[in-house]
Specification:
Length: about 575
Amino acid sequence: MLSRLSRTPPPLAMAARVLPRPFHPTSASAMIVSTNSHFILPPSPTVAHISFGKSLSIIGRKFHYGLNCKEDRRWSVAGWSGKVFASQREYRKSRKRPLKKKEKELELSVNICIEEQLPDDPEIVDISEMLRLNVPMAMKFAFDNLKDSDYQTRDRAINDVGCFESVELSVLLCNDEFIRELNKDWRDVDSPTDVLSMSQHIPELELPILMLGDIVISVETAARQAEERGHSLLDEIRILLVHGLLHLLGFDHEISDEAEAEMEKEEELLLKSLGWKGKGLIQSAYDAEAAGSSLLEDIDRKKEGSLRFYRPKFSYIFCDMDGTLLNSKSQISSATAEALREATSRGVKVVIATGKTRSAVITVLKSVGLAGKDGIVSEVSPGVFVQGLLVYGRQGREISRTNLDPVVCREACLYSLEHKVPLAAFSEDRILTLFHHPLVDSLHTIYNEPKAEIIPSVEQLLTGTDIQKVIFFDTVEGVSSTLRPYWTEAIGDNASVVQAQPDILEIVPPGTSKGSGVKILLDHLGVCPKEIMAIGDGENDVEMLELASLGVALSNGSEKAKAVADVIGASNDDNGAADAIYRYAF
């Protein structure tokens, strides 16, 4: 929890190695601080959102090499000074008045930056503006405390800041993902932490500028700790700021018990002097440990409530229903519902792509408040249904319909009657069958499809009715050993067979798939496949997973789906879809 960069990079490589991405200097807030604590207020607020490239400069600072710091704060400069004595120009000499000694002033240059992957969260922006005033004040108090301190364990590389013309410090607000990468790169620790301090000071260079370094704070971890400790996010960030600043001034609680005690004492003193709430980070860590809290333990992914600290990687997420959003009981868990709700609240559009009818999806998602105007499915929202055979676009209007060859439909119905194999024919939002059977009833009782209508004859079932697909029910063995081999051969090029469930065989029009339905919808919406993520589990999801920029197959899925997926997620009974959204969509 309490971390400090322990390795010191080579002088010329330091800026590149400390943070491999540049802070833009446009975020600098300059404050002039004199030795008697007089403050000159900084200019109007500016906060930079920083993006990272391959620049070797972390702050974009100008280094003034070759200048030696003198006690009277004058700089030795080689070359002609252009001085001309008055007597040489025959000017009248006058008695010189003694000049008042100019008060020494120390300029504090503070960069407050927000890492680009942090969204424009109003609270974070407000905190960054507040830090423009808080950070220089904390620096002033910390510098004053150094003068009379008698700490035995502090590294005294920085003692008298009055020797410098100015002091520079950068504070970066980021999320767990970013600070985790820093930990991996610099500390060989593959986990996030709350704050990292990165020193830029190289005493040997004798620069007129004290480049104090960089403090990196994860607002995501800070938010968790603030909630645990009962204070605001700003309070927690201030505590982390004090901790990071003391590290840059030579305190290190990790080297010994004595060093820890000294740093803890200085934390409490500095927070009290500033009038900031909360205990020091060291004491807070002990309190959390005593209470049995493990805020940073086993944090390997973004979780519920954390998406506010991340920008979406995709514009759309296409989700299957059975075996994906729904668990083995054909129910959607509260965790999965919350993940969908949080994703949409962050601007990501969730679109259903399923073998189910639209009415069935609305029924299921209505139970968790995700159907209707503010949900992810409704009569006026886009979606891909009945294995991509019915596609609805803007305002929920039908943009594509593909029907099964009537000849194939007839053969399927006759086979059902002859072999007493239950069949269901899908006709938009209607389910048709030829005789009563418990497996057909399960479409309604388990899968939430409309209740099947029993049609007394094949002719009546087919007359004036568009059939998109037919499905056969049997045992898993019956489907694999009898139904699938028979119908694969019987339909030839007139239709295709596909399976979403191991005990159900579906016969659909040739050349169609859920993926082709998704492609039709993307073209209608003007969306590129690179903008979408897809989550599925079945054989019928293969084309959709291949189409998407990122295809996630859940671990309970078919081998065909997992073979084409970019990543394999947790199972549907372990909230695999929710995990995929938190882990990969942001």
